[in-house]
Design goal:
The chain has 25 helices and no strands. With 542 residues, the protein is mainly α. Helix 18 runs parallel beside helix 21, helix 22 runs antiparallel to helix 23 and helix 23 packs parallel to helix 25. The protein is globular, with a radius of gyration of 27 Å. 30% of the residues are buried.
Length: 542
């Protein structure tokens, strides 16, 4: 597999360009860290104060919890990655499914170890200096480093083993498997909700550090969060708790062996799960590479995975004339991107909750929360436009026959594609206006500007897709992805610059939002005017 990956990277011109670009960037910017000499005259590092060790332990614990949580979330798919050739060739051979299971297990485990290796490669000498800084003053820093590395290796091993053992249980196409999947999802949701609530309470407490340490040492963390034992294994020796360190080592190693044994006992289910996973994977993967959500949902509908829905507000709108194009797009966008929009709204609410938890009677937090909200609105608008305008290219023969000018067709198509992104911009603005009521100017500015910015991002994507319409060409698809992001940045750039200037000069951001709204309207009209001739000349047969 490794040899074939290298061969593919060197044989394909598109992949070769990417490999060469990555290597050139690494040697010119990041890899140079390895060749820099240490500054002369730098004194010896002072020992860390004792107050830092609890913070360091919490940081390591948080990282281990994230690693473990990601592995558990992967349990909701069949263990391992499989291609069509596996079902056609491998599964029909007399190779024991247990051997196939262990083979995919080792591959998954090796991939989990790539992340720290990438950090070391791209961080260079400064990464090692960071580790040296954290371990300064420790009686035996080499031992601490070995224990921390061993903790990560064992935790990753335990997490992959858990995802395989649990995945083979909850992904069975049986009544018991579906019931186990639901209960496992409920358990993970309950644990996650408890941790988020406890973390929020710790942040709001008078002594946040003590509250977090109490949470880390609580029975809940000790019983349900095995990464706690891994963290003790990494730092227990530095804190004078060798028994906890070796206990963590034993729990993770013994638990990993038990989980692998449990996974091998269920290996007979592997081929059935893998065969169901392979079905439709290739078509779905190609559609995902193109950002074509409509093809993905069409595939789901043919497989019976979607239920018919009629959005009440949209179906109640009786649009006529050119506005019927907007109505049609509203129906399609609600079906294709409604779930994605709900997920993004949850993320926006979570970010706003973080701002509320960390509120410090200053408006500095708003400076960080506004760009984050704008970035999510921007990303959603980019995704909707990319998938939506690919569908527009497929409807050319039908849509061009309508009795409207090319500019009118493009304008209505843009407005239809921009409905959900604009609605998300309005929702984000309302969240900020309510959540940051102490600094209402920021929320009002977001409410006025975000919908227009979303429409501008969508509008410029039509120009890009008409200039690079070959969706099956990987070279054109990759270049189009770069240009799409650049075009979106150009569409929102002037508004962001004006907002920054107004903020530095002390001018209310509401005035900047009004200017942004006018500029976005101009971008939409200009994009429709430019796209009209391009759309008139577009021929799907070419």
């Amino acid at each position: 597999m490794l040899v074939n990956s290298v061969r593919r990277a060197l044989q394909s011109p598109t992949r070769l360009i990417g490999v060469l670009f990555l290597l050139a960037w690494w040697f010119s910017i990041v890899g140079a860290n390895f060749f820099r000499y240490e500054r002369r005259g730098a004194g010896a590092m002072e020992a860390l104060p004792s107050e830092v060790y609890p913070i360091l332990r919490l940081v390591v614990l948080g990282g281990f919890v994230v690693v473990f949580a990601l592995r558990l979330l992967l349990s909701f798919r069949p263990p391992g990655n499989y291609q069509g050739a596996d079902a056609d060739v491998l599964f029909s051979t007399p190779v024991d499914p247990k051997a196939v299971l262990l083979h995919r297990f080792l591959i998954d485990y090796l991939f989990t170890l790539l992340f720290p290796i990438i950090i070391l490669l791209f961080g260079g000498r400064q990464t090692w200096q960071g580790f040296q800084f954290l371990s300064r003053g420790v009686e035996d820093p080499a031992l601490v480093g070995r224990m921390a590395l061993g903790a990560f290796l064992l935790l990753s091993f335990f997490g992959v083993a858990a995802s395989y053992a649990i995945g083979l249980t909850i992904n069975r196409d049986t009544t018991g498997g579906r019931k186990a999947r639901r209960w496992f999802a409920v358990l993970l949701g309950a644990v996650g909700a408890y941790l988020l609530g406890a973390a929020a309470g710790a942040v709001r407490a008078e002594d946040s550090l003590a509250a977090f340490l109490a949470l880390a040492d609580s029975w809940f963390a000790r019983v349900l969060l095995f990464p706690v034992t891994a963290a003790d294994m990494a730092l227990g020796l530095t804190e004078g708790r060798p028994a906890d360190a070796w206990l963590g080592f034993g729990v993770l190693l013994g638990g990993s062996v038990a989980l692998i044994w449990a996974a091998r006992r269920q290996a007979a289910w592997l081929y059935d799960m893998a065969a169901r996973q392979i079905g439709g994977v290739q078509a779905r993967r190609e559609a995902q590479q193109q950002g074509d959500m409509f093809s993905i949902y069409g595939l789901y509908a043919r497989q019976g995975k979607l239920k018919p829905r009629t959005p009440p507000l949209i179906y109640g709108w009786r649009a006529t004339g050119a506005w019927a194009i907007v109505w049609r797009e509203a129906v399609l966008q609600a079906r294709a991107f409604g779930a994605m929009m709900l997920a993004m709204l949850v993320v926006l609410l979570f970010l706003l909750a973080l701002f509320y938890i960390a509120y410090d009677e200053k408006s500095s937090g708003a400076v960080f929360i506004l760009p984050l909200h704008l970035l999510l609105v921007f990303s959603f608008a980019l995704s909707v436009a990319q998938g939506g305008f690919l569908e527009t290219l497929r409807r050319t023969d039908v849509q061009k026959a309508l009795p409207f000018s090319m500019m009118t067709l493009c304008l209505m198509d843009i407005l239809g594609k921009a409905l959900l992104p604009a609605a998300m911009g309005v929702a984000s603005g309302l969240m900020l206006l309510v959540g940051m009521w102490r600094t209402a100017d920021y929320g009002l500015a977001a409410l006025l500007s975000f919908p227009g910015l979303a429409c501008a991002v969508v509008a410029v994507q039509l120009i890009v897709i008409l200039n690079f319409p070959h969706v099956d060409d990987p070279t054109q698809r990759g270049f189009r992805g770069l240009v799409q992001f650049l075009a979106g940045a150009v569409a929102v750039g002037p508004s962001v610059v004006v907002a920054i200037v107004f903020g530095l000069l002390g001018i209310p951001l509401t005035f900047a939002a009004v200017l942004s709204l006018l500029f976005s309207a101009g971008v939409v009209l200009a994009a429709a005017a430019v796209s009209g001739p391009l759309y008139a000349r577009f021929n799907p047969a070419d």
